[in-house]
Amino acid sequence: MLLLLGSRCVYQKNKGGLAVLDIKAKNDSFFAKQLWNIHLKFDSFWIRWVDHYYIPHISIWFFDVKKTTSPLWKSIFSLRNKMIEQCRGISAVQQMLSSWHSGSGSFTANAYDLFRYKANHVQWASMV
Description:
Number of helices: 6
Helix content: 40-55%
């Protein structure tokens, strides 16, 4: 049944959906968090390894992936490119990610809200 409904099942109930978690949007929110951690050079073993091995002399914002790059990296950079295109520039993306990092709510919750499907409010939701 959920497969037949497609993306509509991930809408909130008051938007006419079933309020099922949007796994793709949740996954993208975690990729956005990793992108921001790499940008900040967050002090973790993985980020230090990435900085040393993959991007020692270039910013994460200007790094290009290769054919041999892992699927994880390809996903992070694909999201980076989509965000740059949507926000029309690297500085706008950095500003948005920075506001998520320092603003109210968690980073991934703010990112999830941006990436999830949106729909208009439906009047009949409270009757169902």
